[in-house]
Amino acid sequence: MEFRIGDVDMGWSQHHPIGLIYSTPQYSYRGYTLISNNRGRHAYLIDLDGQVCHRWQSDEGISYCYLLDNGNLLLRTGAPKDADGAETIGGSSGALLELDWDSNVVWEYRNPYLHHDYERLPNGNTLILLFELLSPELTSTIKGGRATDDDPKRMFGDVVKEITSDGLVVYEWKSWEHLNPHDDPICPLEDRKEWTHGNSLNVTPEGDLIVSYRRISTVGIVDKNTGEFRWKWGRGEIDHQHHPTWLDSGNILIFDNGFHRPRSSYSRVIEVNPSTNEIAWEYQGNPAISFYSQAISSSERLPNGNTLICEGSPGRIFEVTSNKEIVWEYINPFFVPGGGNGNPELINGVFRAHRYGPDHPALINKEMNPDNYGNINRLYSNL
After folding, report:
1. pTM (2 decimals)?
2. What is the pLDDT of residues 83-113, one digit of tens each?
3. By percentage, how much of the chain surpasses pLDDT 70?
4. 150: domain CATH number?
5. For 6-21, what is each residue's pLDDT tens digit?
6. Per the structure, how many domains does the chain have?
7. In sequence order, which residues have a C-beta less than 8 Å from that of residue 369 and are 6 or more positions away?
8. β-pair type (298-301, 307-311)
9. 87: Cβ–Cβ under 8 A, 6 or more apart, which residues?
10. In the structure, how many helices (H) and strands (E) does the chain have?
11. Are 243 and 254 within 8 A, CB to CB?
């Protein structure tokens, strides 16, 4: 169920704008933006006018999704009912589902330890990110975190697996075998339920892994064949980041959330050269605190050189030029129950957003008529 912002008693004014906020189409990358509520049951394709042009639905939830070249939607569902405590961790999911254009399930993979991210590979296999309980011996050696009397004897770590369409595991990489309990400590302001909190999984053109570990403020490129880090960076430079992605230049684009940042909390998007560790491009708000999401969020370099940014917690998606000028801005108007444990709080958070051009293979010969969603668009579009 979705709610309008007028139904919500929140810190924003009841008159705070939602939907399309600003648009200069002549400077934007023409296409459709894909969003889904972090704990909702729908995904939406939004045009540059802020109109819904297509919608998918899953009763199991759509916490995050993206389009495959065949036009299907690959999504992760809401949290499972029981996963040894992992179900209470943000980003936990019970299944991956592939939906056709009409929301019919055409493929599924179920595992209660799934979380955050996944990647469909050119060979048809799928990379997945899973929680796995560490041994008590390893858990006791991991430094950092807030020590409490009820700390678990076995914290969770992150494992990457590659599965076939039948769910057969053909590759596995365990993060804890390549991290150091002393040199990669947990942020001192976090608990000790998990070590790393992987939140992103991508690949380079050569097929190596791009990983992101929020609790140790680290991103890296992992040689898929040897399992060793080709590049490992972040501690002291970024804070609780999300979504490192490969750029054609060989640089890495990162959403640096800035949660627990010393002195001041603010977010930024940075482009890092992994050969030199130098920041080649950076976007911040002005003032800095005007752009901040403590969790979730993403950034995506578009074909025209602009960058699509998802400020996830407040549900704000906007596009900036290379000169850091905002040319399109949209605030997710769809609110869903998200407090958990009976908390009635309604949220409009978006884990990630993606922009697809009209010539993208997923959209060829697909009907995307905003008139089909007239009732929604009369409520939420600013046209």
Report:
1. 0.95
2. 999 999 999 999 999 999 999 999 999 999 9
3. 94
4. 2.120.10.30
5. 444 445 555 678 999 9
6. 1
7. 53
8. antiparallel
9. 79, 80, 81, 112
10. 2, 26
11. yes
Structural domain range at position 358: 5-380
pLDDT, tens digit (0-9, with 9 covering 90-100), for 204-254: 999 999 999 999 999 999 999 999 999 999 999 999 999 999 999 999 999
3-state class (DSSP) for residue 275: coil
Residue 36's beta-bridge partner residues? 43
* Structure-block tokens of residue 363: 């959209």
Query: Bridge-partner residues for 309, per DSSP?
Result: 299, 318
Terminal C-alpha separation, the chain: 24
DSSP annotation of 210 reads E
Is the distance from CB of 155 to CB of 176 less than 8 angstroms?
A: no
Residue 60 CB burial class (10 angstroms; 0-12, 13-18, ≥19): middle
Instruction: Please count the other Cβ atoms lying within 10 Å of the Cβ belonging to residue 372.
Output: 14
**Are 217 and 199 in contact, with CB atoms under 8 Å apart?**
no
